[in-house]
Amino acid sequence: MQIDENYLINHERVLFKCDLDEHNRDIEYLFNHARVLVVGGAGSIGSSTIKQLLKFNLEKLYVIDINENALAELVRDIRSSLTFICEDFKTFCIDINSLEFDYFCDTYQFDYILNFSALKHVRSEKDPFTLMRMLDINIFNSIKLIDYAIKTNSKKYFCVSTDKAAKPTNLMGSSKRIMELFLLEKSSSMAISTARFANVLFSNGSLTLSFLQRIQKHQPIAGPNDILRYFVTYDEAGILCLLTTILGQSKEIFIPKLEKLKPVSFIEIAEKLLKYYGYKPYFCESEKEAKDSVERLLKSKKWPCYFSSSDTTGEKEIEEFAFDDDLLEKTRFEDIDVIFNNRQVNPSDLYEFTAKIKDLKVKKSWSKDQIVEIMRNVLKEEMSYIDKGKYLDDKM
Q1: 330: how many CB neighbours lie within 10 A of its CB?
Q2: Could you tell me how far CA 157 lies from the centroid of its own chain?
Q3: Region class of 39: left (phi > 0), else alpha (psi between -120 and 50), else beta
């Protein structure tokens, strides 16, 4: 018996499926014999979108990712479960900041380029080294791919964003918001659309996946007790990205309709999961108590859980998808609202951001505070980041 994902996150039906069915004929027409490149395609959202893409009559579908093992599993999974329509399906284990990728760009042209590569964890912003890499992947890699798409006359560029880009309280969300501003500036040269969406249930590295891993390893389950999150499933994430790619107009950001989502606590998900595996949660008062009581509690079909208040940098009580003054188009789709990303972008701010980050790299010396200041100069009042000095890696 499979875990009922819709039950875990209080979904009454598969979101975005009705919009997919409504526009399926248009999608079939636009994707017919299309050449598609997916970057970062071996990750959770990328692989789900690839499975949606393979339902259409593509001429070629090429996938790039730096995770060799994940690419191998992607191919095994697809060839074990799907009937192929696209005969020219290939994967490439290369870094887009490499000579090999430059050679790849000189060799192939694509109609649609989808970018899923990202550093998505708030925990990745705690040190100046990983933070700089986050800017490279979330911002500068996207710019490189857009320039490639423009140079080769691609029809469309899609890049996945995040709900954390709306009123960002962390540097990961701030990096994605800066990426959106670059997308807006580049939209004068080609069609670009993006999507913000909720947490993907059981995605790689997610807290919900860690619940499954803790159960598998007979370890305590831990999480925040004062946070609500919106969730979508793998399939829903893939459908939303597919729809944004093919139906999103330039400068548009697709987001789920909030009224179709129900915020869920991590405690509720943990309780439902444990019930599925035949256990009841036992709420401990400390990390030590949770770790010390594993063997004793499991014998009585109870599972040690430690849920505590969120006191780490960058967390919100509940995520948001849009700024207060964003204008939403609410009638085009059943489950999707559309933001027209028409905010004024000062090209000199983006140029200054790029120049200052490049200068830090040339000097091979920078601090986290320096990077934060450079990011604030771009986002100004949009960014509400406060460093509390405590991060998720400091907790179980």
Answers
A1: 11
A2: 16
A3: beta
Taking alpha carbons only, the member of 122, 95, 131, 118 closest to residue 361 is 131
Pair 328, 182: CB distance under 8 Å: no
**Residue 64 pLDDT greater than 70, yes or no:** yes
Q: State the average pLDDT for the chain.
A: 95
Question: Whose structure tokens read 């891993």?
Answer: 213
Report pLDDT digits (tens) over 323-335.
998 989 999 999 9
Is residue 389 scored above 90 in pLDDT?
no
**310 CB burial (10 A radius; 0-12, 13-18, 19+):** middle
* pLDDT one-digit tens code per residue, 243-296: 999 999 999 999 999 999 999 999 999 999 999 999 999 999 999 999 999 999
Q: What is the helix (H) or strand (E) element at residue 62, kind and residue range?
A: strand 60-64
CA distance 259 to 104: 43
Measured CA to CA, the distance from residue 99 to residue 103 in angstroms comes to 6
Neighbours of 259 (CB within 10 A): 9
Structure tokens at 394: 């400091």
Contact at 8 Å (CB) between 256 and 243? no
% of the chain exceeding 70 in pLDDT: 99
Element (H, E) at 159: strand 156-160
